[in-house]
Amino acid sequence: MHDVIVLYNVPASPEAFDAHYQNTHIPLVHKLPKLREFSWGKVAEENAPYYVVARLSYANAQDAEESLASEPGVASVDDLANFAGSGVTVLNVGRHG
User: Fold this and answer.
1) pLDDT-derived band of residue 97, with 50, 70 and 90 as boundaries?
2) Is the pTM higher than 0.85?
3) Which of 14, 64, 89, 91 is most buried (CB neighbours < 10 A)?
4) Residue 89's closest CA among 61, 51, 58?
């Protein structure tokens, strides 16, 4: 298994972030080919540097790479500029065990 973890920095406008993320970005993510599972949540710790953490799970790293290089993948990545102006960190994590 392979996960792509996306850490979204705290946005200037949480309300605007939430509206775009839930109404526009998540539907784009659900179009990703080869995506096995998608989950996300808001960070509960006060004063944390991150606002939302998302996990996209794939069978392997190659599927993740192909998915993100696809037309829906490019659209999802391009959409980050529309709501994630505070920045994001993307981690590719191979799961073992």
Assistant:
1) low
2) yes
3) 64
4) 51
